[in-house]
Amino acid sequence: MDKILQQFLAIAECGSFSRAAQLLNVTQPTLTFNIKKLEEGLGVTLFKRTPRGVALTPYGMTLFENARIMRKLYDNTIGRIDRQRIQAEHAISIGVGYTWWLLFLRDWAFERRQTYPDAPIHISVGNQLRCMDQLLAGEISMFLGHETTGMAAEFNTRFVPFGYARQGYFVRRGHPLSDKPQGFEDIHAYPFVVIGSPEQRYERLFLRDPDMLSSPHLKMETSFSSNSMSACVDYVLKSDGILRFTSVLAKELAEKGLQQITLRADLEERPARVGIYATNSTEHSPLLAPLIEEIRALGASKLAQIELH
Fold this sequence. Notes:
By secondary structure, the protein is of the alpha/beta class. It has helices at residues 3-14, 17-24, 28-42, 58-90, 98-115, 128-136, 184-187, 210-213, 229-237, 250-255, 288-308; strands spanning 47-50, 53-56, 92-96, 121-125, 142-146, 157-165, 167-172, 192-195, 222-226, 242-246, 258-260, 272-279. The chain has three domains: 3-88, Arc Repressor Mutant, subunit A; 91-164 and 274-309, D-Maltodextrin-Binding Protein, domain 2 (3-Layer(aba) Sandwich); 167-269, D-Maltodextrin-Binding Protein, domain 2. It is rod-shaped and about 100 Å long.
């Protein structure tokens, strides 16, 4: 808003040149000079002297009423532009699996909302293959999940690790496999429950490696699949199905009534790296690079806490 109009409003609201000068941190002669210049430009007198200071003339009242509207419009415009700037600089769109959402990203998102209340947050919770599809389509800026071995180089992605995690096998209490250590052949004798979409549609995300595509983890017999974790848990509780899921959430799944299958002593699921997938273009992005590092550090800290316990 024009500086002289701001000074005019301050004088009118204070009723005094001297008080307005103190409020604006300028000298009284400066105010007097600027108002005289404004009056000369308009060809009218805006203030009249009174024993207590100054009062508006009818011309001054007309300017005052309209200048207040102008100030309000100006302030609203500046506020709206500032909100747009915050949205552009701090809006985020992240894909994440249920594990990392429950483990730490949920709290992080809520805290970020407190810091940047005008910046929208979009979280796509789902299986990591679906998240990769969204990343490649530009619908999300990054996603958290297990490292996908054999990712085709043509997709121009990078992986920023923050730790390791093992997969576990979860069943209802009283399941035939729940009473003693089991081997993989025993586990694969039962149908699996999958959180996410059928994976065949995502095969294009992998190298055309016959050994990889014939992996038992990719060719498990699936009896039920859903994008809803709650639906999958409900199904396992009512069936002999097995849910293969990150073991770091064993405590949370136990609270829902699921028990982790104990593997035989000679068997162990190899830990897989977990981290953040993003396109290579984000490495030097002034907006996304610091955000990726912040989430990486938080994920590493959370996994370290779990290992200590």
